[in-house]
Design goal:
By secondary structure, the chain is of the alpha/beta class. It has a single domain, classed as NAD(P)-binding Rossmann-like Domain (Rossmann fold, 3-Layer(aba) Sandwich). 48% of the residues lie in helices and 13% in strands. The chain contains 8 helices and 7 strands. Strands 3-2-1-4-5-6-7 form a 7-stranded parallel β-sheet, with helices on both faces. Helix 1 crosses helix 8, helix 4 packs parallel to helix 5 and helix 6 packs across helix 7. The longest helix has 29 residues. It is globular and about 50 Å long. The N and C termini lie far apart (36 Å).
Length: 260
């Protein structure tokens, strides 16, 4: 489906991002991975994807909180491949605390990685997309782009911002062959979510088991975690030709959470 296309997926060395990168590679896209982790493990992932799917796979460890490293990553990708045809903004961090106890540095870090990084990758990818008359941008937001939860003020603020940014850019490029959409997962059992559980337990004064039962899955009427594969499949569809009429959409994939 994506033979000859190049995809850049931020935050793709684990979790949802890796699932999306794997799905796009399996459908023929060259892939640029981004994230952090043990150098040997990252190289194993990179080489494994390339060998399994017969595509080019690169890795760039750009720090998504720093505009200058984002610019360097995008510059290298554009120089090598000519364009980033499929851009998936997935990188994200989380911190859970009451707003009056929220560390100021964590507020700025979450907004930088979860929101501002998306602005930087999009603004740098668009010129080549416009020249080619084709582009697919998928911003991985969250159910928290649509509704709020206590103790997550920075994350909810950033994800609401991603939803608004998505709609705005979609309108700007609607006649350019470029679509811009946001995918809003509910709780997916990734390393990011697993890391939240003890923090949420401390903030709420309950056990980790109660967090899973009464906080995380309490919001999802299906009482099931969304899977990485399901988020990856929706993202790949939005990158396809069949999804060309879909732009400016903020699409929940959260077991009915936001229907309540």
């Amino acid at each position: 489906m994506f033979i000859g296309k190049t995809a850049l997926v931020t935050g793709s060395t684990s979790g949802i991002g890796l699932g999306i990168a794997t799905t796009l590679a399996a459908q023929g896209a060259n892939v640029i991975l981004n994230g952090f982790g043990d150098a040997h493990e990252v190289e194993r992932l990179r080489a494994g994807l390339a060998e399994a799917h017969g595509v080019q796979v690169r890795f760039d460890g750009a720090d998504m909180s720093k505009p200058e490293t984002i610019e360097a990553m995008m510059g290298k990708a554009l120089a090598e491949f000519g364009a980033i045809d499929l851009l998936v903004n997935n990188a994200g961090i989380q911190h859970v605390a009451p707003v009056d106890e929220f560390p100021v540095e964590r507020w700025y870090a979450i907004l930088a990685i979860n929101l501002s990084a998306t602005f930087h990758t999009v603004r740098l990818a668009l010129p080549a997309m416009k020249r080619n008359g084709f582009g697919r941008i998928v911003n991985i937001a969250s159910a928290h782009a649509l509704v709020a939860s206590p103790y997550k003020s920075a994350y909810v603020t950033a994800k609401h911002g991603v939803a608004g940014f998505t709609k705005t850019v979609a309108l700007e490029v609607a006649e350019c062959g470029i679509t811009v959409n946001a995918v809003c997962p509910g709780y997916v059992l990734t390393p990011l979510v697993e890391k939240q559980i003890p923090d949420t337990a401390r903030a709420r004064g309950i056990t980790p088991e109660a967090v899973v039962r009464d906080v995380l899955l309490a919001a999802q009427p299906t009482k099931k975690f969304v899977t990485v594969e399901q988020v990856a499949a929706l993202t790949a569809f939005l990158c396809s030709d069949d999804a060309a009429p879909i732009t400016g959409a903020v699409l929940p994939i959260e077991g009915g959470w936001t229907a309540q």
